[in-house]
């Protein structure tokens, strides 16, 4: 189809007619086709979000019919609040930590499964399975595993003569558990995307490299990685956005505790609004969160797109 | 890379098997927990001697899983349908007609993807109450559709622009077909791969949604499976075997669907990613 | 693709069938003759829930045209109700759990013309009524909280129930020694913030309110110096460091309380009065007792912490007000009042009946002890309960020092007071 000329130009005829036609026949936007979609998005997302921004300038407690406008005080409060930074740190950990782990492990699995070995399809299915399950339920499943009393992990430790550990209650450990569970659940996606990417790399490159005497590692570094760049970009961006918005799994695994130790920005917002009568502040955190997600995902997109072009 | 020594093959296969086993452990524990009787406090690793299948019946009843699952199913399927129809329709002009207005609208759709759902929650709640649609399946459907429209439109428009040749549409226009006709009869059928991807991604997410459902679907009749399960967990903290049984039943439909349609799940995700 | 379509078609068909079946079986509920009344309660305890459910069933039997839909959101109760308040969409009957006047006041129907008001226990007058005589809610029972303890164990170890805070600490030490590590002197279901909230709240009364030198005025007019609160955080940390608390305190769950108490593994709990009958069921050899709060200031009098526990208020904009009130009339009959009080092992809210519950002998023993209302409900603005508990968690997980706990409480106090206007 590449060689076929478009006909619209030939319809014009002389250059004068082209100009006249161009002016009169303005391209219609066909806006009515996206009107329902636009309406839905504006109504359910945009309007409430803008309203939410408005609330961030008040001290609304979340249920009274009255409240006061307080200017930027919620924002200054947020910047000074140590909890904010704790929660941002956690959120970044969840977002970036999960992303790195998912991608490294996912790539590893993909490399393994790209070869003709036994149990290949079975493994692929099993690894991908958790993606289908609700993150909430995944949290519960791992709760059975990590609970202090009667948890599977502690049973194992005791069996081998070691002390029980309070994994979920230790603020230094439980944030890593959350990263672990999130990774466990979604590593299948990274794996599949990498598998597809791997399979689209022509074998010729590898054969040529082998003839030149390149080692496996060199082949990986100079052929595989660069050619996987599009897949890497997608994985990175998806994972970062997903990880930053993490909510369900935190609620079911640690409830955000102890205290606020394992809260992410979303669970923190939830807590502020529903438990601490602090809707104004919750909205402020929400705006901050949107900004962070925007910046990070844009940064990731730009960075990896650039690498893609280089490769 | 295709030829490898037998030893290496068996070694790698062993590794694959280990990985599978590791990934299956949580499910194993879920199953053993679900099958234990009430007074059975044996370790979670031990497979119960007496299989308490009645846990499933009890959990099903108490958590009203039948109702919850049917709600979830309805919401998921109707949402998916609406997403495909209105999402693809919206993507068409945004991909084909590059007017200033359209470019602006496209940007809006993309920008919206960044907004954390919770930020919109409270005002949305108030809005929904004001129009009297609390606790209705309709509102859940509409909200889920709205949430996934941006991604849907993004994927469809990308695909239309990069893969579908304009000539077909122009030919049809010559023949006097209406815009809508052109779209649905010619363009849409060619969008199958993306449709499959979107169907799968959105169905999984909507089925598993918790953040939204927990506020807008509290009433018994409209609870979805995630809400029912969360409530069930809270109420039965000391009857974990029931909770495990309920969890198994709640995920079963999706798992079965997945096992049957594996190829499509995987293909959908893969093709979307390779096209970039 | 064809296979996909086929599967989808089958799934859609199945869905329709399942939905149809469900709607059919629950079809009776959609009966337009029945009036639906939505009831939300904070009841979490198994025994309490069954008690309430039985009463509802009895009512529905007598009034077949009324269907009461019960909801027990447990931990999520307050959050859910806040959202409902924001949207002005309250349940027809709802639990005010101590905040009938100060939080839910604007949303409740005045019940002063109902018959049972004359039988309202005087201890609840200040709590459910205001100066104008408006009655805010119906009390299902009242709180009479202090410290719950394993009486069997204390007797065995020769410990007298403590009357001062120092005696309390000594008692805990003795339990630790004599229990040889098997018994937790003071147990908290710390996974739930409320467990710590309970500690701070109940002990704030002897610390800040009942003594000669008290801070009632300062708390109410917003000038309270929160460094006076640090004592409680200090002591809690001390207890933790001396291993007088349970090792898994931050992940221990409420439901474990009964099991552990029945195995004689717990000495004391703050609050927790509802345990008695459940423990007895598991192990009849274990007897529980309750004592009022030990004093902190020398020479002070001990006090019970009381007020609302479970109530039902009627939404003033409810469309089924009459039916809702009918339910309240039903449960205010003497036999039902007794049933609820005994079923929840707490004193009834009305005086029209004599109810004996598990702790009656203890209540009688301490009948002269004054009942103080819950500290946070009177002296703190609405919304302080959450940080009260959360700071406890943070204190014990090492992320906050006792001074920081007080500082956090002060911040929230000031912020919430500003909201009140």
Could you describe the 3D structure shown?
The complex is a heterotrimer of chains A (311), B (276) and C (421). Chain A is mostly helical. Chain A has a single domain (81-310), classed as MetI-like fold (Orthogonal Bundle). In chain A, 73% of the residues lie in helices and 0% in strands. In chain A, α3 (31-55) crosses α15 (279-310), α5 (82-113) packs parallel to α9 and α9 (171-199) runs antiparallel to α12. Chain A starts with 6 loop residues before the first helix and ends with a helix. In chain B, α4 packs across α6 (137-163). Chain B has helices at 6-34, 54-62, 65-96, 100-112, 117-130, 137-163, 166-174, 179-190, 192-207, 213-216, 225-235, 240-260, 262-275. Helix content of chain B is 76%, strand content 0%. In chain C, α2 (46-62) links the parallel β1 and β2. In chain C, α16 runs antiparallel to α17 (402-420). The N and C termini of chain C lie far apart (63 Å). Chain C contains 17 helices and twelve strands. Classes of the chains: A mainly alpha (311), B mainly alpha (276), C alpha/beta (421). Chains B and C meet through α3, α5 and α11 of B and α1 and α3 of C.
Concise description?
The complex is a heterotrimer of chains A (311), B (276) and C (421). Chain A has helices at residues 7-12, 15-24, 31-55, 73-80, 82-113, 120-132, 135-146, 152-159, 171-199, 203-211, 216-227, 229-244, 248-253, 265-274, 279-310.
List the helices and strands and how they pair.
The complex is a heterotrimer of chains A (311), B (276) and C (421).
Chain A: H1 7-12, H2 15-24, H3 31-55, H4 73-80, H5 82-113, H6 120-132, H7 135-146, H8 152-159, H9 171-199, H10 203-211, H11 216-227, H12 229-244, H13 248-253, H14 265-274, H15 279-310
Helix pairs in contact in A: 3-15, 5-9, 5-12, 6-9, 9-12, 12-15, 14-15
Chain B: H1 6-34, H2 54-62, H3 65-96, H4 100-112, H5 117-130, H6 137-163, H7 166-174, H8 179-190, H9 192-207, H10 213-216, H11 225-235, H12 240-260, H13 262-275
Helix pairs in contact in B: 1-12, 2-12, 3-6, 3-9, 3-11, 4-6, 6-9, 7-8, 9-13, 11-12
Chain C: H1 2-25, E1 35-40, H2 46-62, E2 66-71, H3 77-86, E3 93-94, H4 125-128, E4 138-139, E5 142-145, E6 147-150, H5 151-156, H6 165-179, E7 184-186, H7 193-209, H8 216-221, H9 230-241, H10 256-262, E8 266-270, H11 276-282, E9 288-291, E10 303-308, E11 311-314, H12 321-331, H13 334-343, H14 360-365, E12 370-373, H15 375-379, H16 385-396, H17 402-420
